[in-house]
Each structure stands twice: as C-alpha cells, then as structure tokens.
Amino acid sequence: MRGKADGQKWAVWVRARLQDQLCQLGYFLYRNAGKVLFVAICVLAAISLGLRAVQFHTKVDQLWIQEGGRLENELRYIADTVGETPASTHQLVIQAPKHHGANILHTAALKEHLAVLRNATQVTVSLFDTSWTLKDLCYKPSIPMFENSMTEKIFDNIIPCAIITPLDCFWEGSKMLGAHVAYVPSHIWNEPLKWTSLNPTLMLEEMKKRFAQYSFSYKILEDYMKRAGITNGYLDKPCLDPRDPECPESAPNKHSLQVPDIGAELTGGCYGFAAKFMHWPEELLVGGAKHNKTGQLTRAAALQTVIQIMGEREFYDYYARVDTDKVKYTDWTQEKATQVLETWQREFTKQVKLQQNTTDSRPYNLFAFSTTSMNDILGKYSELSFVRIIVGSGLMFLYAGVVLIRWNDRVKSQSGIGIAGVMLVIASLAAGLGFCALLGIPFNATSTQIVPFLILGLGIHDMFLLTHTYAELSVYDLPRNQQTGVVLKRAGLSILLTGLCNVVSFFAAAIIPIPALRVFSLQAAVLLLFNLGAMLLIFPAMISLDLRRRRAGLYDIMCCVRANDSESQEACTQVHSRCKLASINNNESFAGEEETLTGFSSNDCYSFSPTQLVAKHYAKFVTRPFTKVIGVMLLAALLTASTWQALRLDDGLDLADLVPLRSDEHAFLSAQTKHFGFYNMFAITGRDFEYPNNQKLLLDYHESFMRIKNVIKNDDGGLPEFWLTIFRDWLRNLQESFDRDYKNNCLNAEGWFRNASDEGILAYKLLAQTGHVDNPIDKSLITQVRLVNSEGIINPRAFYNYLSAWATNDAFAYGASQANLRPQPRQWFYGDDEELKIPKSMPITYAQMPFYLHKLTETADITELITSVRQLCRKFEEKGLPNFPSGIPFIFWEQYMDLRSCLGIALLVALIASIIVVGILLLNAWAAILVGAVLAGVVLQLLGIMGLCGIKLSAVPAVLLVVSVGISVHFTVHICLSFVTCVGSRDRRVRLALEHMYAPVVHGALTTLLAVLMLAFSEFEFIVRYFFLVLVCLIGVGLVNGLFFFPILLSLIGPSAEVIPNEHPDRISTPTPPSSPIVRRSSSKPPAPPRRPHKIENARLHAEPSLTTITEEPNSWHSQQESCIIVQPEVKVETSTCGNQNCSGSDTSCSSRTSPVPPPSHITTKVTATLTAKVEVHTPLTIVGGVERSKKCRHSSSSSRRSSRCSTSVNTTESSGSSSEPDSDTNTNSKRK
User: What residue spans carry the region label Disordered (predicted)?
Assistant: First the structure.
C-alpha cells in the first residue's frame, strides 16, 4: 500500500493496534468459550448475592435533601441537637368539594368535617401490651406544677390536645375535644368535666367556694388561666346547629335559631380554648378564599385541620421521664416510640378513608395526610415490580427472537444467540445491582422503578450491534476459529466508545446533589460498566458456541435437532442460484458509481431488510442537495424554537407528583398546593452566641421578618411573639408586681411580709440572683437592678436563672412559644419559703422562632421566599448571630437555588468528557467536536420539548438531560466512526456509514423504547411524566438527529477520511498481485486433493494490523477499471472429481451441515488447457443486509464461483495475494488430449 494513499497514518496505526487487541481477545474467547461462560456464570451469580445486603431509603428527607450542602448540615445540626425535624409532628386533613368551583362555606360541610374527625381521633392502637390513643400522643399545653399530685392529674386530664381546626370558630369545636373527658373523683366533683359544657372561669369560682377549707393555691391556677387566655371555653361561640340540645344557652344564636354566617365567623381565623396562644390564622384553615371589599370571606374551596402530635424524640423523652404504667414494664426505646406514632397515624388515615368511603353520596371529599403516609408510599413503591420486569424482559426476548430469526435458514438463524444475549444483559443487571449493594449505595424508588428498564434497553443495543456484525461475517470464507475475533475487531471499538460515553455521562449526572438522583446515576453507571464487560467478554464466548452449533449443522434454538442433507442442500442451492442470476445480470448491466456503491440489481439475492431500504432509497435521499438545504433549514429552525422554549422553562416539581396519581395522598397534596400554599417555618439560632448580652440583636432579627411578604402577620399587623418577648413580658409583669408590693411596704430589701403577693415574692427571688455559681444570692441587688430595663433588655447577669424560673412556672407560655430550647432549662418551682437560690440553666445552643407562611402556590414564589430569607439570615450571620431557616419549603425547594448552575456544570462535564472519549477513540478532533455539537443540540431540543409539554425543570429532568448526552452517543458515534474510516467523497462515506450502521442503531432505539415503555405503567406520576415521557422524547430526538441531521452535517462539513487514495477518488489503486508459486509434484504419487489457499492467506490477513475499516474491511480486492491483466498461459492441470465433501471449505457449503459420508473413488485426468484469466481488483464495497454484496453476487465471468465450489474444484492459481477470498473467476476452454 506504500505510495498508493495518504492520510492520518498515526490514527490508522493506533486503531489498528486497538483492533488487533480486540481481535486477539476474540481468538482467546473462541478457544476457551466454555471456560469463560462457566467462570462468568459463577462470578455473576456470586456478585448477585450482594442483593441480600440492600438498604432502602424511603423517607423523603433521605431522598430529596442535597448531600453535603448547606441544608444537610443544618438538618444534621437539628437532629444532633433536638433529635428530629419540627415538620414531622402533624396529622393533616383537608376537605374539598367533589365539584370543582363549589363553595364550601356551608354548615353541612363543617358538620361532615366534624363527624369524620370525631371518629378518626378516637382511634386506638395496641402495642407493647398497651393501648395508645390520641391523648397519649398529641401535643398538649403544659400545666403548672401543684403540690398535690392528685390536683395535677386532674388538670392534666382537663387540658385537651392542641387541634388547629376551623371548627374552633364554633361551639362544635368543643366536640372535637369531647373524647377527652376528665373524670374527677366523686368526692371532689360529682360529674365528669367535658368541654362542651365547661366554663373554666365559673369552674374555678365554684372550686373556691366548694373547697375553701382545703389549702390550695388557686392563685397559681388563676394566673395560669389568665396568661393563657382561658376564659369561658367554647360556650360563647355560635352553634352550627342551634337546635342541637347540647348547644349552650350562652351561644349567641341559641335563642334566635339562626344559622351563623360561616364566612363572617372564619374571617381572620379562629381561636382555641386558650385564646392568647391559640390563634389559628385564616390562611391555615381556609383555602382558595375570596373576600369582599370589607375583607370578609365570601367563598372558599377547602378547609383544613391540623392535629399536632409529639415528635419521635419528644414522645420518647416524655414517657422515659414520666412515671406511668404505660411503659413501666416495657423496654422503652426511641424505635418503639417511633413505631407507636407511625402505627397510630396509619390507623388515623385508614379511618378517614373508611369514613369517606361510607359517605360517597355526600358532595365533599376528605383526605388525610402525614409524613408517615408519604414514607409508606415511597417504601411500597421502592419494592421491585416483578410483573413489570417479567413483562419487559418478555418483550425483549420476543423482539430479539423475532428480529434475528431466519425462516429460510434455520441453521444460520440468530434467534437463539439473541435470546441468550438478553439473558446475559439481565444477569449482568442483577450482578450490577448486587455490586451496588455491596458498595453501600442505597436503593430507592428510582433503583427499582427506572434503572432496570433503562439499562436493559441500553444493554441490548450493544448486543444487536454484535449480532449484526456476526451476520455480516456469516457468508465470508473465514475460518470459524477467527470469526469471533473479527466480530470484536469490527464492532468492539463502537461498543467500547458508546459504553464509555454512557458511563461518563451518568457519572457526570451524579454532580446533581439530590440523593435519590445521585443514587440513580451511580447505579446506572455501575450497571453500564457491568454490561460493557459482559458484551466484550462474555457475549463473544456465546457467539463462539453458536459457531460450533452451525458447524455441527444444528437448528437455531432447537439445538438438539440436526438439519438433514436435503434441507441443507436445498437452502444452499437456493442461495447459490439467486447469486448466480444476480451475477449474470450484474455482468450485463454493470456500470456507474451507484451500482458500485450499492451493489444491488433488480434481482437482488437477499430479501428485504432495513439495510436494503437505506441502501436503495434513504442514503441517496439524505445526500441529495435539496435534502441538505431543507435539513439545514429545519435544524436551524428547530434549534431556534428549542432555545425559545428553553428560556421559558419554569422551575418546579409538585409534591403531588411524588405519590401515586389516584391515591388520597395525591389528592391531598394537590388540594394543599392549589388552595392553601400554607407552610410553617422556624428561624433557628445556634451555638457560639451569647444570648444574654445580645438580646437586642435577637430582637432585631425577629423584627426583620416583617419584610418577608409571605410571613403571616397578627391582627395588629405585626409579627407573633417569640420566646424572648414572651419571657420578657413575663418578667415585666413580675417587676410591676414587685414595684407595687415594695411601694405598699409588703416587702423590702431584707424580705417579704405575709401580705406580699406571690408575683412580688417571685420577683424578689429573681432580683436577688447574681448569676454567679459561687455567690448566687445578693439581696442588695433587689433595689439596684431591674428584671427588664427601660430598653426592654433582660438583666444579662441573671438571664439563665430567670430562664429556669420562666420555663417552669409559666409552662403554658413556654410551650406555646415553640422555643424548643436546648439544653432544656432547669426546673425550679416557685414556693413562698425562704429559699432564694434559683438554679442556673445551661447556655443556649439551640432556639427557634416560629412563623407561618402563605401564598406559596408556585415554585417561583417559594424560591423568591427562600432567596429573601437566606439573604436576611446571611446579613445577621455577618453580625455574629448564627442562624438559619428550617421548614418544608427549605427542604424541598432549596434545590432550585443552585439547580441551574449544577445542571450547567454537569452538562459541561458530560459533553467535554464525551468529546474527549470520542476524540481519543476516533483519533479525530474535528469528528469529536461535531459529535459534541450534535449532543448539545439534542440536549437543547429536549429542553425545548420539555417546555412545550409543560414539564418543569427540577432535579429529575436535570439528571435526564445530563444522561441524554450519553444515550445520544448511540445515535451518532457509530455513524461517525464509519464515516471517518471510509474511503471516498463525503457523500459516498455518508451513504456507506448509513448502510452499515442504520440497522443496529434502529434496533437499539426500538429495544430501548420497549424497555422504557414499562415505565408508562408506573403508579408514580413523576415516573411517567418526568422519566417515561422525557426518555421517549429523547429516543425520538436522538434518532432524528443521528439518522438525518447528523449525516447531513457530515456530508457538508464532516472530517476528512483517514485514508485518501492518491490516484482514484473512491478507491485505493490496485496492488500488483504476487507471482504464482511453482508447484513441484512427484509422478510416482497421485496428486493430493486440492486445498484452497484462502485459509492461509486469511489467517495472515487477520493476524496483521488492518489498514481498512469497520465499514469497508473486505476479504478480497475488486477493480472498477475496465482494463485488466490478461494472462494466457499453457498449463497442465490435474483434476480430481469427488462428492459433496469437497465443498467443505466454504461457509455456504452444504456439506458443512451434513453428516460425513465415505469418500468415493477418485478419477484423475490430465488435460492441456489454454486459460484466459481476467483479474479485477476492486476497492472494498459496502455491506448490506449482513452480507458484503461483492462477495455474494458480483462475478466478472459468466460462471459462478460459489456454484463451482459445490460441484468441482479446479486447481488453478488465485490472483489476489492479500485476500481471504479471491474474487477473480476463471473462464476456461479445455482441450482434452
């Protein structure tokens, strides 16, 4: 070849070395096929056992919180300090009309709301030999400590659970508390106390009269009720049904019997039994509200009730420190506390569903929801769906079996090897998942619902490429022990290229820091690595066994059945006769570039196939100038429209999409998002901060939330109070009592007198605190300091002493403040004894300020809120206050703050990595850049389709956008590799590349589509919408770009060929054939049967590095010139006539499939012949339908060489010295002497 062509020698040399290594690997696998398969089965089975170590993540915070980010650090701090997140302690119920747009502000709706909730709140569960009710689990306001334990138990029974409900605007709200009946001993109170008839103020007055002789501190109870705002209970509220016999006489509409105006009563929100600390905002109770000009409610679309339940840690701590019979005989642990809470919540939800099912005729729906419900759903759907896996695998088996079967040649059919390949992909998938489990990568819903189907489709793509190449070589006269090597030599590079690009893109997608999606990316990358290894190391061994089956003449699939002689002879004769006819026609009509390139005549010898369609029609269509112009215009328009749609793409992922479409949880989340947009949040302050000396900074921090527009303000337009202001007001009241007693001489610097008030005495004790542990009391401070100075700052020196007194003696206010201080303040109960020392609490390391948020129905609103709150927190962080926000908006929507930047980085990494991999393996920088440009175009078009379909950008489609880079490689790299390695003009190389790679690309896309189709049947809306739909669009966009736009680009600006002929544009000049060897024969021995030299030449050809390509690597040379080498020698030829067994040297020989027969006697005849040989050496031609057409149908003489091999063999010199199958045919005129 020296001097006949130029080009990129180094690229050809490097690829030749790589292909040679793949070829040697194929030889090894052929020789050791059985051993390789045995070891592979053992290894895959052993690794698959790792599935026993699977860990599932089903909790929302485990799946959705950014790993290693600010949010995860904040939540870890909360968990380490408090033990749980504040958002995990609510049971919610939403009521909405069945008919969209109906008004729910009717008494019937509230009555139904009451009926369902009363039944649901009476749920009881039995665990650990104990019955648990709502009263045991719910959050209740704290009560003051009494000296008499019996009194304390009575009031503990009286105080009900805190339930946020619109029913609290009416007397019927007391019925929600009706199950909580305080049974008082009969000698104290002769009837049970019920909130439906309880007037706390009158009860206290009655107790004073009835138990005047008992020593009881009524003052403590009076102060407690006064500070909490407990007055007349529910008796002054209107009744929904004034005709109800239990409706109290004090109800405003009891005597008028007028139904209350629901909208007017709900306007501004409702108040619980403790009005000062139980104000429920209107936005929390009523959804989809509409007001008139005066601000009064006129219409509403939904009502909401929130039952506050203790968190896991709080529930465990409460019963761990309280002496109660419930856990007295139980090894009480936090795990058991969690189990009790989750079991009760499940039963509550089940009861609400039961009530809803029994009231189908009513015009309202009620839906219950809790974090436990969502975790249960995610846990349930994280389980493997064996039905879908079986159906998906069955479709793969069916497709592979049908597409690869050959009905007219059951021995050379590939259905069995295709089914075996699908089984191998499934086995490698199982082993890959087992390996992920061994690595400690947790599983979640994406691991079980998406990964298996996606990897199944991508893995089978490579299997089809190998079988396609295997089919191409099936008609070559290659020794069978070399075919496996040649298959890997031709297809291995493409498989390695696409596999590495896929793995790189999935690893790049792991940059998106969402745990569920990072796990998805890592698992998919590991599985693709396993599949790559299986396709390069195990599947060729299967091909080697299939070659042995063919050699034995056994049927495909039914490998125990041997083809009979007549059947094999008939198949062979049909093929040869068709090829002979095609050869004759070709000799008559051979002319032009088109015939040379496509090689098809009107009487083609093979049936219809996708490759034939491309060769005859599509390849020519794509390379037409008109098609190129239209294609470029379409591509420009498509990219422009995609850019416009991508710029309009919104961020967002509704929580409702994370649960099954037709579930009650989905209905709840949809209604909650649509009608309420209500969330609670906490502003949390942390450690390394001097709270006593920086109270002004804390107050400013709280006041700054006034500027956050989504924060709900109180009735006065200001912010609700937080723990420090409530603490300060308590001290101010004590200071006022002290000043009053001091002025009235009820106490002095030395002590107090009997007429001093309890508040004055308590203030005296507080004022005497120095704040020093070694010298805790100093009475001189009583007249020198004040509890709270004129600027509203609590005395910093005794701050933590005061905190101990406040948290214990004003327990209701401390609990209502939701401060959740850590470490918890020390307990100190007030008494009128002479003891002055008050224990000092530990410095605060955790405190929180509660806020309610509303009007957060769109992702844009939530991200705006997060941005403004984060800016505020950063501002005070710079001032020295460690703080951060917490709540559902920050847990689920924090991802959108950095999502686009993370997506950009991940896409850039994936594209650059793919370009580098393609550049290294293609050894062509411009080709790699073109591939990268097309991949970027696919991503842009996919973004445009997402915008057109209304799919919002979140972490889920972001990962798929990154992954699309790797998946799209399948549609481009095969074409590009074939294009670069072809010889000729750009148009010719495009046509050759399409003919060669169209079929495997289409088969791969269809198998991937079949696998992804299983996702359409998932009950998860987000899987269907965000995975199935996006992946289907990706397959369609990839096919259009890979098979239409990309070939047009290659034909216009594609890279030059690696090998450029010097003399002819589309072929390398014909090499000079070597001289015929001189054969010396002894006359004393009969001549041996002829042996065709092509096997030796073939071995030599494939043992050396090839300079040809995957597309055009033939086993013979052909000439397109009309001139040829004419030789007219006179030779003596000895012929041996024999039976069918002499045909065994050919792949298409019939005798290779028949049983051996005894050789017949030989007849030796000496003749003198004049031989006229026309030798044609052609450039390599294209391969269509799995067979190189120049080898099947084109012959230069009127006789068919394939036909002659089935009848008689002439021992003449073959003229192609470097070919594996000579394509010159001999036209002999014999004269017998």
Answer: 1063-1105, 1137-1162, 1188-1233
Question: Look-up: residue for tokens 């491309």?
Answer: 614
Q: What was the pLDDT predicted at 983?
A: 84
**What's the rounded Cα separation, in Å, for the pair 532 and 534?**
5
CA distance 826 to 156: 21
Omega within 30 of 0 (cis) for the link into 823: yes
* Side chain identity at residue 317, one-letter code: D
Task: At 68, list the tokens.
Answer: 């290693």
Buried b (16+ CB within 10 A) or exposed e, 149-187: eebeebeebbbbbbbbbbbbbbbbbbbbbbebebebeee
What pairing do the DSSP bridges indicate for beta strands 90-97 and 364-370? antiparallel
Q: Is the pLDDT of residue 1006 over 50?
A: yes
What is the C-alpha separation between 635 and 937, in angstroms, rounded?
Answer: 9
Average the pLDDT over each of 224-238, 649-663, 1213-1227 and give the range with the smallest value. 1213-1227
Which tokens is 326 given? 């419930």
CA atoms in the 13 A half-sphere facing the CB of 1049:
22
Most confident segment among 227-231, 803-807, 900-904: 803-807
Distance CA 901, CA 906 (A): 9
Q: What own/partner pairs with CB < 8 Å and gap ≥ 24 does 781-788 have? A: 782/749, 783/749, 786/735, 787/731, 787/732, 787/734, 787/735, 787/738, 787/763, 788/728, 788/731, 788/732, 788/735
Q: Is the pLDDT of residue 441 over 50?
A: yes
Give the helix/strand (H/E) hosting 5. Answer: strand 5-7
Tokens read off for 659: 């649960």
Region for residue 717 given its phi and psi (left: phi exceeds 0; alpha: psi -120 to 50; beta: otherwise): left
> What residues does 457 pair with on adjacent strands?
none
Span 1200-1218, pLDDT tens digits = 333 333 333 333 333 333 3
d(CA 1102, CA 273): 92
- Give the H or E element holding residue 90: strand 90-97
Residue 1051 token pair? 């034909």
Instruction: Name which residue leads in pLDDT, 1159 or 728.
Output: 728
pLDDT of 638 reads 92
Q: Which of 1205, 1211, 1203, 1207 is nearest to 1228 (CA)?
A: 1211
Which regions of the chain carry the CATH code 1.20.1640.10? Answer: 14-85+414-559, 611-648+924-1067
What's the confidence (pLDDT) of residue 307? 87
CATH top-level class for 611-648+924-1067? mainly alpha
CB atoms within 10 A of CB 1177: 26
What's the token pair of residue 756?
A: 């001093």
Q: Are 112 and 172 in contact (CB under 8 A)?
A: no
Q: Is the pTM of this model over 0.85?
A: no
The answer to whether domain 14-85+414-559 has CATH 3.40.50.2300 is no
Cα dihedral 395/400/403/407 (nearest 10): -110
Identify the burial level of 408 via C-beta atoms within 10 angstroms of its C-beta, where 0-12 means exposed, 13-18 middle and 19 or more buried. Answer: exposed
CA-CA distance, 815 to 166, in Å (whole number)? 22
In order, the DSSP letters of 222-270 are HHHHHHHT-SSTTTTSPPSSTT-TTS-TTSTTTTT-PPP-HHHHHTT-E
Cα–Cα distance measured from residue 704 to residue 579, given in angstroms and rounded to the nearest whole number: 89
Q: How confident is the model at residue 783 (pLDDT cuts 50, 70, 90)?
A: confident
What region does 387 belong to: left with phi over 0, alpha with psi -120 to 50, or beta?
A: alpha
End-to-end CA distance of the chain: give it in Å, rounded.
43
Task: Give the single-character DSSP code of 721.
Answer: P
The one-letter amino acid at 269? G
